[in-house]
Design brief:
The structure holds 2 protein chains of 2 kinds. Chain A is α+β, with helices and mostly antiparallel strands. Chain B has 2 helices and 10 strands; from the N terminus they run H-E-E-H-E-E-E-E-E-E-E-E. In chain B, 19% of the residues lie in helices and 28% in strands. The chains are: A alpha+beta, B alpha+beta. Chains A and B meet through helix 1, helix 2, strand 4, strand 5 and strand 8 of A and helix 1, helix 2, strand 5 and strand 9 of B.
Chain lengths: 183, 192
């Protein structure tokens, strides 16, 4: 009897371990609250969309002092170019892969001349860019990535409600599109 | 028959133990992959591509998106300094210094991922630019339902909440050793 109980107990622990690992690994695959998955499902391709009070729900625990704008992209054949006007206060941006992991991030001080200008390319396009030496190389940060699909999220700090307009204009000025020079 | 019964017993215990241990390892604030300072926890590697499965599962289950390393680092607290769960019925002082950073924001959230609802619809949040500080750069603010003098962060509603202190453009994300940074203390003043 004692041997049977010990045996069953050990088996249970092994099963519990397998279940534990399976649950942890399956949550990102099957979870419905996953912010990255929701963004990919609900935002248009190559077009910045502001996450206002309605769509801010896509992301839990959003910072109330930041307005955000998101653009979903597919590196595709030509790569993606992202740009925005100047903004005098703090802003930051991150490029996420489709699973919601950050590939690259920057803020206004790490950007070239404090401007949001990014080129997102795959390694093959990177080689083409090195040969072409386009003007954008001087003004843009080139991000080489293995991921085809992802999204870029731009966050703009609203220091005071009276300055919200400035942040919104900055986010509205943000553009993302196919990088024509490689076409 | 006997074997089948044993099989189901093993399966039932296994599912329960496995599910519960997975749930608690994600629910716990001081979870896997975190750095902890007093009641605060941060996941400095949450943004990276080499994200560990626990941190990844936690983010997916909570519906949050991590900040990139160049953007900043978020610290979460769901307990006060003595280890009691934060409750919107209580008032707290949050005092001390934050690690060096260009901008920080502090906000209170419900467990479902939305901001704590306050009585008059004010945002339960403050940032580094709209509080008053002492001469040495430290600050003291009161979070609670009743308005108070000095720095005040309104709370409201009922039940547990969590505080998230986000440090934007902070050097602590770039020194990978992450020396235990100085974080504000959260102390309970009293409850209604």
């Amino acid at each position: 009897m004692v041997r049977l109980i010990t045996y069953l107990g050990l088996c249970s622990i092994v099963v519990a371990g397998i279940v534990h690992i399976a649950v942890i690994l399956l949550i990102p695959v099957l979870g419905e609250r996953d912010a990255a998955r929701q963004i990919i499902a609900k935002t248009p391709m190559l077009e910045f969309q502001r996450l206002d009070t309605a769509t801010k729900q896509l992301i839990s625990n959003a910072d109330p002092f930041f307005s955000m704008s998101v653009c979903r992209f597919n590196v595709g054949e030509n790569g993606v170019i992202v740009s925005a006007d100047r903004m005098p206060d703090f802003w930051s941006a991150s490029i996420y892969n489709e699973r919601g992991a950050v590939i690259y991030s920057l803020n206004d001080r790490t950007a070239i001349a404090n401007r949001l200008r990014l080129l997102i390319v795959n390694p093959i396009q990177m080689a083409a860019i090195r040969q072409l030496q386009p003007d954008e190389l001087e003004t843009s940060i080139v991000v080489e990535t293995q991921t085809q699909q992802g999204f870029i999220l731009v966050r703009s700090f609203i220091r005071d409600p009276s300055l919200a307009e400035r942040s919104i204009e900055f986010l509205q000025s943000a553009k993302c599109g196919e990088y024509e020079a490689l076409g | 028959m006997r074997i089948l019964l044993n099989f189901f017993i093993v399966l039932a215990i296994g599912l329960m133990l496995g599910g519960a241990s997975a749930y608690f390892s994600l629910r716990q604030a001081h979870g896997v992959g975190a750095i902890n300072v007093g009641p605060w926890s941060a996941w400095p590697f949450v943004g990276g591509v080499e994200i560990d499965p626990y941190t990844s599962a936690r983010g997916a289950a909570n519906g949050t998106l991590p900040l990139g390393a160049a953007e900043g680092l978020a610290f979460e607290a769901e307990r006060d300094q003595t280890g009691d769960i934060l409750d919107t019925k209580c008032a707290y002082t949050i005092s001390g210094k934050t690690p060096p950073t260009r901008v920080w924001t502090l906000a209170a959230y419900q467990n479902n991922g939305t901001a704590v609802e306050t009585v008059d619809g004010r945002s339960p949040s403050v940032h580094s630019g709209n509080i008053i500080r002492f001469d040495d750069g430290s600050f003291r603010l009161i979070a609670g339902n009743a308005p108070s003098s000095g720095n005040w962060m309104p709370l409201g509603g009922e039940g547990p909440f969590r505080l998230i202190l986000r440090l934007y453009d902070t050097p602590i994300t770039s020194n990978s050793g992450v020396i235990a940074p100085q974080m504000p203390r959260i102390e309970k003043l009293g409850c209604e």
